[in-house]
């Protein structure tokens, strides 16, 4: 059975630096897809870029706030004030207005949909839109191992090295895998995930990664092909 790899850049629209990083990783690296944060400052700029590059599949990155690890626990800041259902509906409406078509896939910032009411709601939304929801579609295996921090927000830069990504590629299962990533340029002060974004850029654009994909006969794909 053949192997297909979707490389999805989260946080598109978060800032101009993230937008630049996603663009570079798409044009010069292995990124094939992105997820748009519609309530962040650079969302309109990101949507315009996606319109100009129609082979970049664009999903909705549902954004309900930012979780930071502090004093031994995770705390939420910048939390969306609206009720859950209204917040998701508003973000979907904003996506449609900015992009001009429905998202090719759904996921959420910091994976908040993988538990509780958010998950149940997004499962329903994904069914209504007939699009995949991250880690909830039996056709697609999600891999979140390409991430440069621990579960406590501590640096784990070895996990986003060229060597680590090549290892991930060589051990991919047959079928479709979505690999999450978070590229960015000039984002060192972007808490909680800042310096790691520039490291990811270099890795995603490294020729050794592309060579590993070719050697292992993996086909780069996107949510447009599902």
What does the model show?
The chain has 226 residues and is α/β, with parallel strands linked by helices. It has one domain: Glycoside hydrolase/deacetylase (TIM Barrel, Alpha-Beta Barrel), CATH 3.20.20. It is built from seven helices and nine strands. Strands 1, 2, 3, 6, 7, 8 and 9 form a seven-stranded parallel β-sheet that branches. It has a two-stranded antiparallel sheet with strand order 4-5. The longest helix is centred in the middle third of the chain and has 16 residues, at 84-99. The chain is globular, with a radius of gyration of 16 Å. The model has no long low-confidence stretch (mean pLDDT 93).
Helix amount: 25-40%
Q: What count of domains describes the coordinates?
A: 1
CATH class: Alpha Beta
Overall radius of gyration: 16 Å
Integer average pLDDT: 93
Number of discrete helical segments: 7
CATH arch. level architecture: Alpha-Beta Barrel
Count of distinct strands: 9
Through-space gap between termini:
16 Å
Distinctive features:
226 residues, alpha/beta, TIM Barrel, seven-stranded parallel beta sheet, two-stranded antiparallel ribbon, 7 helices, 35% helix, 21% strand
């Amino acid at each position: 059975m053949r192997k297909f790899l979707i490389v999805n850049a989260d946080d598109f629209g978060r800032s101009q630096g993230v937008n630049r990083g996603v663009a570079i990783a798409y044009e010069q690296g292995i990124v094939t897809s992105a997820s748009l944060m519609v309530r962040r400052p650079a969302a309109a700029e990101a949507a315009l870029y996606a319109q100009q590059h129609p082979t970049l599949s664009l999903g909705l990155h549902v954004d309900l706030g930012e979780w930071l690890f502090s004093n031994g626990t995770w705390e939420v800041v910048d939390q969306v004030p609206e009720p859950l259902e209204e917040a998701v509906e508003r973000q979907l409406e904003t996506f449609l207005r900015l992009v001009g078509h429905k998202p090719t896939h759904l996921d959420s910032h910091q994976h908040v949909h993988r538990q509780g009411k958010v998950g149940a709601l997004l499962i329903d939304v994904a069914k209504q839109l007939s699009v995949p929801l991250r880690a909830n579609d039996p056709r697609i295996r999600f891999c979140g191992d390409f991430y440069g921090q621990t579960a406590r927000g501590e640096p784990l830069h070895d996990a986003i090295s060229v060597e680590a990504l090549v290892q991930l590629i060589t051990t991919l299962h047959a079928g479709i895998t979505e690999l999450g990533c978070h590229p960015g340029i000039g984002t060192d002060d972007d808490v909680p995930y800042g310096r790691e974004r520039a490291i990811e850029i270099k890795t995603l654009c490294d020729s050794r990664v592309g060579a590993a994909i070719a050697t292992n006969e993996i086909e780069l794909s996107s949510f447009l092909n599902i």
